[in-house]
């Protein structure tokens, strides 16, 4: 990381400016949610398709699983998933957005490459751990983030790992958006679990702590900071004009 700035443009103060208390509006009309039986079927399907039975099960984390892993792990290392990249391509009408102001969250989409964190999961109650993980990662039918075995390169060679990749057939798939358009969304969207700006700041902070610099995310956090500052200045100017009227 020598020669690179590690000073974030996006700060906790920016996040506080975007945050607001929002009630959970629920899944919305017509939404189909996964049942316990559905989740059990997904666990069975993934366990049956394990590409290396008997060897440690690895989980490839690229976003929030890095700063909120949810499940136990016995070790971690850096890995590269080729053929996949981080993308704010998942439209959120809940959680970090609302129907009136939809948000965006990251998913692993096709193309490029992605440096992330490989977690080795303990063998104890692996099915139970996956069941908890799946309940966290996908809610609606069809799943937005599909559990899938992918290849990840490590210092020791290529290994199979479980990850969550974008389901392009999902109604919530936003496609490939310009960073400027993503920044405008993240600078404003907020849901009952928090804002898009908070999600981005947490992700880039924990990636940097592990020596991972995603150039797109680094540029994005600067753009989001600019958008929040611009919106804040505009709101202040409007308030002054209103008081002076």
- What's the Cα radius of gyration? 19 Å
| H-E order | HHEHEEHEEHEEHH
Mean pLDDT: 93
Q: Would you tell me which CATH topology applies?
A: Hypothetical upf0131 protein ytfp
pLDDT under 50 segments (min length 5)?
A: none
Number of strands: 7
CATH superfamily: Gamma-glutamyl cyclotransferase-like
CATH architecture: Roll
Keywords: Lyase
Pfam family, one: ChaC
Protein name: glutathione-specific gamma-glutamylcyclotransferase
InterPro entries: ChaC (IPR006840), GGCT-like (IPR013024), GGCT-like_sf (IPR036568)
For the structure shown, list the relevant keywords.
245 residues, alpha+beta, Hypothetical upf0131 protein ytfp, three-stranded antiparallel sheet, two-stranded antiparallel ribbon, globular
Provide a descriptive summary of the structure in words.
- The protein is built from 7 helices and 7 strands; from the N terminus they run H-H-E-H-E-E-H-E-E-H-E-E-H-H.
- It has one domain (13-244): Gamma-glutamyl cyclotransferase-like (Hypothetical upf0131 protein ytfp, Roll), CATH 3.10.490.10.
- It is α+β, with helices and mostly antiparallel strands and 245 residues long.
- A hairpin with a 2-residue loop joins strand 4 and strand 5 (157-166).
- The strands form 3 sheets. Strands 1-3-2 form a 3-stranded antiparallel beta sheet. Strands 4-5 form a two-stranded antiparallel sheet. Strands 6-7 form a two-stranded antiparallel ribbon.
- The model has no long low-confidence stretch (mean pLDDT 93).
- It is globular, with a radius of gyration of 19 Å.
- The chain has helices spanning 12-18, 36-48, 64-67, 126-137, 179-186, 196-209, 215-244; strands at residues 57-61, 75-92, 103-121, 145-154, 157-166, 190-191, 194-195.
- Keywords: Lyase.
- One of its GO terms (molecular function) is glutathione specific gamma-glutamylcyclotransferase activity.
- It is an enzyme of class 4 (lyase).
- Its EC number is 4.3.2.7.
- This is glutathione-specific gamma-glutamylcyclotransferase.
């Amino acid at each position: 990381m020598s020669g690179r700035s590690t000073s974030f443009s996006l700060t906790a103060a920016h996040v506080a400016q975007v945050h607001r208390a929002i009630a959970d509006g629920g899944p919305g009309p017509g939404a189909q949610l996964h049942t316990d039986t559905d989740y059990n079927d997904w666990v069975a399907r993934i366990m049956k398709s394990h590409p290396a039975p008997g060897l440690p099960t690895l989980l490839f984390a690229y976003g929030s699983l890095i700063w909120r892993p949810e499940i136990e792990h016995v070790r971690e290392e850096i890995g590269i998933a080729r053929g996949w990249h981080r993308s704010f391509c998942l439209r959120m009408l809940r959680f970090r957005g609302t129907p009136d102001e939809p948000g965006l969250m990251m998913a692993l989409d096709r193309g490029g490459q992605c440096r992330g964190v490989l977690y080795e999961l303990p063998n104890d109650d692996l099915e139970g751990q996956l069941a908890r993980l799946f309940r966290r990662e996908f809610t609606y039918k069809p799943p937005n983030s599909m559990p899938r075995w992918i290849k990840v390169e490590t210092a020791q060679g290529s290994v199979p790992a479980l990850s969550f990749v974008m389901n392009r057939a999902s109604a919530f798939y936003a496609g490939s958006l310009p960073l400027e358009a993503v920044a405008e969304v993240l600078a404003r969207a907020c849901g009952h679990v928090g804002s898009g700006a908070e999600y981005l700041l947490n992700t880039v902070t924990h990636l940097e702590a592990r020596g991972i610099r995603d150039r797109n995310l680094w540029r994005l956090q600067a753009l989001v900071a600019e958008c929040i500052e611009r919106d804040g200045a505009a709101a202040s100017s409007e308030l002054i004009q209103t008081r002076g009227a």
